[in-house]
Amino acid sequence: MVSYSDILISNALIDDTTGLRIAVFVGGTSGIGRFTIKALVSTGITVKIYLLGRKSSQERTQAFIAELHAINPKAKVVWTEAEVSLLADVKRVCDIIKSKESRVDLLFLSAGYAPFGSRKETAEGHEVVQALEYYSRMLFTIRLLPLLGESPIGRVISVLGGGMETTYLIDLDDLDLKKPGNFKVYRARPQYVALNTITMDRLASENPGITFIHSSPGAVNTGNVRRGWDAGSTVGEVFSRVVEFLTWLTGFSDDESGQRYLFQSTSAAFGGRGVTWRGKAGVTTGQKSEGGLFLVNNKCDCTHNSTVVAQLREKSQQKVWDHTQAVLWPYL
Ligand SMILES: NC(=O)c1ccc[n+]([C@@H]2O[C@H](COP(=O)([O-])OP(=O)(O)OC[C@H]3O[C@@H](n4cnc5c(N)ncnc54)[C@H](OP(=O)(O)O)[C@@H]3O)[C@@H](O)[C@H]2O)c1
């Protein structure tokens, strides 16, 4: 485990020479993304942050942005309205960022929740959580790759379940879990985790100049557990209360979670670029210290989950890639 004190020491080294100038947060209106933005702005550096969010969150986010500007007047936080579950809107907003910026240093992806309730689809026909946690995240990544490649420290972080992949829980014949009876939270969650790792692993191998991290946050009391239930579910209410109590008891505080993700966003522990790290270097799924995908657990340790990832690569990667390309191509 990377100790919290080591993380704070590393984060204290973040300054204007570290190179993190432009960051894009998808999911930064709440929870872990929001805690990370606050930790980043609190470093006092000059940074521009694109904070993407849906219209319904705009008003409360304005108060957050005002708070951030008071903490650090050198931080420019740009509210950018986007319905990120819709791939057409992801394309639109990426085009806006591309028209304004010549590089992106950090793409931070944390929109989503566990889909405990019934299957719900976006207007584009994708299950909402799969759209948020997989298709939208991969589309942001692919469309912003050219700008990430222009950064000396370009980094993509997907906050979901890095290191928790399994082979037996991915349904290659029904990647979108559309078959009758196939959509259940205990199938969807591991499937979306595996899809993230499989596709990020391929993108990482094709783009060795960019650092890719698929990360598990551990337990953080963000209210996330309540999002996925159908309205009025009594089981959902009881389950959420129990999980929230356990998370309060054993999980990370908001501040620690934000600092841990700031560390993952900046430290040279992952790929050698960024804030100098004198501890153990992280190792990719390809067992290297750079040029690949880092699976980072809740303790900020890299776990290569090598047997599972090797099997996923061999048996699933091409099929997942072809399917993902077919879904994303209208927006590429
Ligand atoms: N927190 C944990 O303990 C934990 C543990 C394991 C995995 N995770 C996963 O890690 C990721 C980040 O977790 P978190 O706790 O930071 O989540 P969170 O606080 O619930 O925030 C999730 C983000 O997703 C956005 N979002 C939710 N539903 C949306 C929708 N239908 N359309 C558009 N945006 C939507 C939210 O936007 P609004 O602000 O507009 O609502 C928010 O920005 C999630 O995928 C979560 O499932 C979390």
Automatic annotation (TrEMBL):
Molecular function per GO: oxidoreductase activity
Pfam family, one: adh_short
Source taxon at top rank: Eukaryota
Keywords from the named record: Oxidoreductase
PANTHER family reported in the protein's UniProt record: ALCOHOL DEHYDROGENASE-LIKE C-TERMINAL DOMAIN-CONTAINING PROTEIN, YALI0E05731P
Protein name in the entry: NAD(P)-binding protein
